Amino acid sequence: MEKDQETSLKYLFLTFLKIGAISWGGFMALISVVQKQLVEKDKKVADEVILDSISLASVLPGPVAFNVVAYLGFHLRGIKGALVSMVAILLPAFSLILGLTYIYSIYEEVPAFTNFFLGVLPAVAAIIISVALNMARKNMKDVLQLVILILSGLALIFFRSFYTTVLIMAGGAILGLLFYGKGVEEKAEPELVQKTSKQNIRSFLPVVVVLIVLVGLVWGFPLLFHKEATFTQVLLLRDIAMTFSGMSLTLFGGGYVIIPAIHEIVVEGLNWVTAKEFTDAIAMGQITPGPIFISATFIGYKVANFWGALVATIAIFFPPAILMIFCSGFMDQIKQSRIISAIFKGLRPAVIGMIFSAAYTIGKGMEMHWATWLIFIGVLFLSIKLKVNVAYLIPLSGLIGILLFSLF
To answer: What Gene Ontology cellular-component terms does the record carry (predicted)?
Structure first.
């Protein structure tokens, strides 16, 4: 499916705003909701675009799901589409966790969302399975791809780490090249690479300009609206920006993998939050929709109130997303290579296997209760057979969870 020139910025904003408001359960859950909306319902992109974006995001630093959203926004409407999509996907989680952090600062506890989350988890697991099954039906062409899918899923289930993800991706790429690249005579493509580089440099410049303006506004607004803001406070915002952007660009493997590294920096190294506050920040990141990296909002707020929260959020999400956008432009051209095409025939089943493993990981965290199985089976049926929109399934499952787990 080619880039959809008719996709409006309004569509991207409203769609990702809605997705950002209902995507509980981690990065693969968010990606599953994106696939349901953009591929199955609105038919804006093909499954292979989603899979390619996951493949690229998995080997780049930063939050995987957010990087995928940046890729898709860029794929559909270029730089403007990427920026609109990134802002929209963050707004619901940022607003909610900002409110929760304010309440936390008063009561020193996390509000009780337990029963709602107990209903959401099985729904998310069911949706991930339905998405993986749908992708497998469309992309699995032979026995080798099925074997890659199964092995990658099992590997990630038993050995969860960033290095496992890298090995899975490398293994899928090598197998794809060995078995699907036979007899492929690759033409020399220096002109293609040179042309691609020039195109990406030109497309990358507006992003740099926007980022510089954004950073200037973030640092300048406190001085405009708060006369008491001192140079020291502005320097603190700089420290927050440098710390979180540095982490986002140097840490690989997604939220759950890099949590210990972030803990080491903000708790042990900088003493910005206590160990208890950090644990509560991670908990808030899980009970709110959107990426778990949104926990940075909590930490930024504890350090420098609203402006600290805003700067921390921008710093941890936007730099790796900009890197993703830059690399995605190269991918669109490089994929014309027949060798790369063979590699992706091995990569895509590996990614689908990783999606299946995400459902298992979420399933392990579910409470083994009859209501859990009722929600899981019901959502699986509604998603696969009746194609019910996930925008209704996830909130409804949370409400059912409140009802069933409270009464029984």
So the answer is: plasma membrane
Q: How far apart are CA 295 and CA 309, in angstroms?
A: 10
pLDDT in tens, 191-208: 444 444 445 555 555 555
Convert 191-244 into a string of H (helix), E (strand) and C (coil): HHHHHHHHHHHHHHHHHHHHHHHHHHHHHHHHHHHCCCCCHHHHHHHHHHHHHH
Q: What is the pLDDT of residue 376?
A: 92
Residue for token digits 């840490």?
A: 251
Q: Are 283 and 110 in contact (CB under 8 A)?
A: yes
Q: Which residue has the tokens 């093909």?
A: 46
Domain residue limits, the chain: 1-114+128-363
Which residues, 6+ apart, have CB-to-CB distance to 200 below 8 Å? 326, 329, 330
pLDDT at 279 over 60: yes
**Using 50, 70 and 90 to split pLDDT, how confident is the model at 15?**
very high
349 to 38, 50, 71, 183, 210: CA distances (angstroms): 20, 12, 20, 22, 36
Q: At what angle do helices 338-364 and 162-180 cross, to 10 degrees?
A: 140
- What is the reported pTM? 0.71
The tens digit of pLDDT for each residue in 323-351 reads 888 887 777 666 667 787 788 888 888 88
Report CA torsion sign: 77, 80, 86, 87.
Answer: negative
Which one, of 29, 13, 28, lies nearest residue 397 by Cα? Answer: 29
Q: What number of residues does the chain have?
A: 408
Q: Tokens standing for 223?
A: 């001085």
Q: How many whole angstroms separate alpha carbon 283 and alpha carbon 297?
A: 13
Residue recorded with tokens 């036979």: 182
Gap between the Cα atoms of 95 and 376, Å rounded: 29
Structure tokens at 329: 């432009």
Burial degree of 275 (CB within 10 A; 0-12, 13-18, 19+): exposed
